[in-house]
Amino acid sequence: MRVDEFDKVVDQWKNYIFRGPLEEYSLEIDPDISNDIAAIALYLDQKTVKASGEVEEFYEGYKRAASDVLELMGVFLEQDDENKVVRVSVSPNNASLQDELQKHIWG
Predict the structure, then answer these.
(1) What's the Rg (C-alpha) of the chain?
(2) Is the pTM here over 0.85, yes or no?
(3) Nearest CA to 25 among 16, 38, 37?
(4) Do the beta carbons of residue 25 and residue 18 sit within 8 Å?
(5) What HEC string does 56-76 produce?
């Protein structure tokens, strides 16, 4: 992925996610994660959040698919409210932690 395409995906994600209560948050991407993988994770996250306003069956299907892809890629999205940051990092190998994260992010 070209740098300008990566920047475009990140900017679109920020413009959609960092609103309202998340307005003052920032994004951190673990240096161990390639820009391509981070862009895919952010794209899936944005699409899943958008899907939450759709029909419940559509949202649940999209959420499951996004979760499966992130798990396969070994990517972990974490919202740290104390430090007002969203992190994209390498996924821990803890299945229960992954389930808890998915519930926190997508309900």
Answers:
(1) 13
(2) no
(3) 16
(4) yes
(5) HHHHHHHHHHHHHHHHHHCEE
* 100, burial (CB in 10 Å: exposed 0-12, middle 13-18, buried 19+): exposed
Q: Which of 17, 2, 15, 5 is nearest to 87 (CA)?
A: 17
Domain boundaries, the chain: 3-12+23-106
Which residues, listed in sequence order, are joined to residue 29 by a DSSP beta bridge? 88
Evaluate whether 94 touches 37 at the Cβ level (below 8 Å): no
Structure tokens at 74: 């070994």
Among 69, 76, 82, which residue's Cα sits nearest to residue 105? 76
H-helix or E-strand spanning residue 104 = helix 95-106
Output the CA–CA distances (angstroms, integers) from residue 74 to 8, 13, 15, 92, in the order listed. Answer: 23, 20, 25, 8
- For the chain, 107 residues long, give each residue's pLDDT as a single digit of tens: 677 889 999 999 899 889 888 899 999 999 989 999 999 989 888 888 777 776 666 667 777 777 788 888 888 888 899 999 999 988 766 556 566 666 766 66
